[in-house]
Input
Amino acid sequence: YYGHSALLDQITLTEASDLNDYNLSFNRKDGAVEESVINALSYLAINYRSDAAISESNIRILLEYIRQKRALFDADLVIEDLSFTASDKTNTLVEAPRLEGHLILTKPKLTIPLLKRTVAWLKSAIEETGIVVEVQTLEDISDPGAMRDKADILFIEEIIEQPQEVGLYDWLLASSGLRFIYNDAEMKAHCENVRLAVSDKEPFVALKQIERSLYKRKQLLPLFHGKEKVTCSVEVQGVEINKTGYSNFYNLWINKNT
Output
């Protein structure tokens, strides 16, 4: 919305790349880029299908290999959980295990270059083991369960709301990863466990136990902290990115003297 004292009288939204002065863009490669770390988490959700073309044991070995190899992609962004706990792993070389099978990796439509690079790295890392990878697009992000009978692993990035107690509770109830791996009955049972945890005398501790159990059973694997990139022409000043990835234009102004 425009305030009564707004200094701008027009804003144009476009996908065109050949813009003139007074422009800003998001997650583009060229230009002077400002990076902001946001409260977003990319992770893998694992669906152990009975009719998969890859064994459960090979998937588990593969996940451990990816977990150890994450730091080689971006050591500064590797995280261990929804609290954005930084990994203490160093970016040392990891020998790829020799595995076999055909794995189907699904992902939503990605527009952010960092996420596209992450998926390319992930596919390459899996192929290093000898596993054949097929990447399929999750067409409807609101219904990740639509790929439950077709895909073995879901790659996705999601915003984790703050404070972390609220964010963890919301995520455990509604995350795309859990809706991908659980059918309706399993999701209902999981949500009941979450509600019981909330009534515990230490609810956050109880919720963290549920989260850790998902990692221990190798149903989920956290990958990286999210980033948002803003490219501004030199005339555009004052754009801010908050921790949830939203752009704040409250202090935006145009410097016509540059």
Remarks:
- Helices lie at 56-74, 113-127, 164-174, 176-181, 184-198, 203-216.
- The mean pLDDT is 83.
- The longest strand covers residues 33-46.
- DSSP finds six helices and ten strands in the chain.
